[in-house]
Structures
1.
Amino acid sequence: MSEDFNMTMRKFLKQVGVTSQQAIEDAMRTAGTEATTGKSFDAKVVLTIDGLEIEHVVTGKIAGRS
């Protein structure tokens, strides 16, 4: 793959990671300590790319406050 491709892909994935973490942290703060303490939350990310017919799904769990 080209250097331009690698750079734009890494930039996009970094943006996804940073903004997703911020959104999760905001949601945890909004939900409050009582609603998140000792719980875990199912998470799913769906990546689609127009023109490439790709749908990539990542699932996991995020722990609440301990």
2.
Amino acid sequence: MKTSDKTAIILGATGLTGGLLLKSLLADDRYLNITVFTRSPLGFTHQKLTEIQCDLLNLEAQQPDFKADEIFCCIGTTKAKTPDKERYKAIDFGIPVSAAKLCKKNDIPAFLVVSAMGADASSSIFYNKVKGEMEAAVLQLGLPKTHILQPSLIGGDRNERRPGEYIGKQLMKVLDFLMVGPLKKYKTIAPENIAATMIWLANNPYAETRLTSDIITKIAKTEHNARSRT
């Protein structure tokens, strides 16, 4: 792959999807530098990596350093991990929207964010409503290139314990076989596919703003195939 000098920022690099995304971008010759804004240290160094530890709930304070060609936002918490609804919204709504606003202020053209299936600003379910409100606030900014990924249940092994999610994954291992046709978007999705699709979207024109799991998986195959040929 042709060496380039692109730069990117990742929010949520200590999570499952964000960590895989970071690993892929560090290995991608199109990128010269990857900056990670994080609350917790990554625990490793790399010649292409810049790590900025900060309070993500006060991301606006990082405006001078918030400069890149692309922003990848993989921030997200859970009801079990963050039972306080006010704090939950500060994370799942506040951080992505603050990041998108910094894109606007600093003339960063591309913003890619992981949302969730079922996101709906008019939903009576608090967690779906928060995600939907986040999407609406991001899109209202009118950034040149915005893509919102709406994955279903994300597979893979996490470092943290999530009992409810574990049970859901075991159930979905059975139900996934029944998810065909229009139901494909409900199938469990691999975090590697989310990361691969984010990278593909950042480097290719794509008309749609919101992408469900079935589309994410389809695009990921294109990116995986391209990487395997390099």
3.
Amino acid sequence: MTEPDAAPSSEPSAEQGADTGPSRRPRRRHHVDAADGARVRGRHRGGADERFSAGLEALGALARDGASVSASVIDTSTGKALLAVDDTLVQPVASLGRVLLLIETAAQLEDGRLHGDRLQRMARDTATGAGLWQFLQESTMQVPDLATLVGASADAWATNALLSAVGIDAVRERAEALGIERTALIDRVRDRRGPDDAPDASVAPAGELAWLMRGLALGEVVDEPVSNRVLGWLSLASDLSLVAGAFGLDPLAHRALDHGLQAVVVTGSSTGVRAEAGILRGPGSSVSYAVTVTFDDATLQRRLAVVEALRTLGTEVLEVVHAPSYR
């Protein structure tokens, strides 16, 4: 993942040199037992590099308070697991599953099934969630522009319009072809979910998300042009409120290297859900990571505790990529 060009339409390049990626099934890795504080609902799997002691403790505190936690940090170049806390636990991740939609959109743009055609904003696409299109006068947009809105702001209307054009079955088939077994975009963005709707927009385990982000960084998700398109859209993401809140980057402009750092981040937030997957490149190394938390969102205090724990983990991610090479 090299430094992207300054122009908003440019795409950052993918890192090269690894021998694995999402084109193959994610490797099953051996995990040692972690501290009791990291034990969460579901089968306990965990372990951590010693540099993640504070993050492990913070996530453990959430678990003791009743939250369900899944986390994974891996070295982007080697695939070495640096942190694994119930990384196979499938949880709701709100809109974070849109990364699968962007992958299929990029693939269809590359192979010519999608062109620069303009999509009409339809009544079925409306949802009073995140994004800007609902506030704009323009009622039609080209597919690449809609993907830019999805990457930059998780735009609800743009997400639904793209999903209608691309097809949710195509998104699922692409995920299966990439060896993505448990991460799924299962429904469009909705203001309310009724008894006949899917209970969540998307679900994922942190381990699979981290490996998917690694594959994008290495140019191995479908191929390098597709990976680069997706990285370009996600590099515009303006939500650095969770793990990436510890990186000290400008949330509205972080495509270029800044103090030796470059981040690509995708988040998902809804009531009782906070999730993030990303890539952080630094002077010493690059890591791919993901963390998902579901919790009782009854009080602001509980929500802020989740945000604080994720930023604690982010501080240690930052320290790792600034350290000299440890491989």
4.
Amino acid sequence: MLKKMIAALSIAAIFSFIAPSMSEAATYHKQAISTAKKNIGVKYTYGGLSPKGFDCSGLVKYSYKKAGKTLPRTAADMYKKGKKVSKSKLTTGDLLFFAPNKATRPTHVAIYMGSSKMIHAASSKGVSIASTNNSYWKPKYIGAKRI
């Protein structure tokens, strides 16, 4: 009986340490997406880091900074951070990386919103939501990272 009680207390203690960090992750991912959504329609500006104009990595960096996380400036440098995630295990807030002709160095980054949707700053539409399965982005996908 005493062993069962000690085991139960140990498990409860472990979850008390894990659960806050799990909810914190969910919270900052949602905050980053919320910030990005507030900027829908902002024009694309090469090198842009603010609501006056964003490029893709500028939007991601800005959105995550507002959520309390610091990311590198470029898509290529962001790709070096975080934990690799398979496409089948994507969750809200994961970063999606794209490159022309299946190159290994990404030139575009977006935030996964769930349900095959992403938010990003596209040179053609500015800050907008797109399908990860559309004919333009799908063949350029090279991987995802969880921050």
